[in-house]
Amino acid sequence: MTWTKPWRRAALAAYPLAALALLLYTVGAPFEHGG
Amino acid sequence: MSVRFFLLTIAPPVFGVALGYLLGGRLAGFRTVRVRALWLVWLAAAVQFAQYSLPGVRHVVEDMAGVPMLALVFALVLAWLAVNLPRWPAAIRVAGLAIVLGASLNATAIAVNGRMPYDPVAAAGVGLRAGIETPKNEPAGAHTRLGFLGDTVPIPLLRKVVSPGDIVISGGATALVVLVMRRRRPGLTAEEVNHDVDAGLEAHHPDDLHAGGARDAALYGGRAGLRGQLTAL
Predict the structure, then answer these.
(1) Which positions in chain A have a beta carbon within 8 angstroms of at least one beta carbon in chain B?
(2) Is ipTM strictly over 0.85?
(3) Do residues B112 and B222 share a domain?
(4) I need a labelling partner for B11 at 20 to 30 A (CA). Which of B149, B166, B199, B202 fits?
(5) Residue-wise pLDDT tens digits, B166-219
(6) % of chain B residues with pLDDT over 70
(7) What residues have CB less than 8 Å from B233, skipping those under 6 apart?
């Protein structure tokens, strides 16, 4: 295993994880304003 | 988007990754599930951003074209899930369906009220100014329908009030990450999948000859026609 492997895996996983966060941003509806 | 809202959106995936590691999963599991048409999610996020932050665009789309931007956002996300869910493995599909269910609960509350109603008492309880309206939220009142689907659950740590749908979506997102991380590539054992790809293939087919490559040029054929054949010893 080369030293770059964990970072490559993390980068590959980061994209779908970011998509999931985007998904929560779009269909989540928390009330947060007015503080 | 505020920092706290950002934290709220990344919390389920981050929590899912931590839980996935604790349960023996690895980020490499994400290579086993193909995600299609991700542009739909980006587009939905762009519409959501425009709705909140670009009042000019909101005016044109909602007031002039008569298209509710929230309906557009939910339609795009549900379309993305419809494209992907049938192709995902069964367990991951269940987690995806939980996200659909949560989104549908939120969409229902928004559809019957125009905006997502929030409980003013719960909002005041976490230090938010109750009574204001936003493009997505309005205070619940006597006119509110299906108020229990609205933002009624206070999260003091993040100073937010969330809905049952938000909780279901977050749970589904966390479960989805855990389940994907725990997936193994077909034919590999739990130990092999954590190792180098070449090492995993060798372990899986111990009788096969190793494919030629730069590292093995002295022993194995590097040309395409000789790949996988032992050419010198």
Answers:
(1) 1-2, 5, 9-10, 12-13, 15-17, 19-35
(2) no
(3) no
(4) B149
(5) 999 999 999 999 999 998 765 544 444 444 444 444 444 444 444 444 444 444
(6) 79
(7) B219
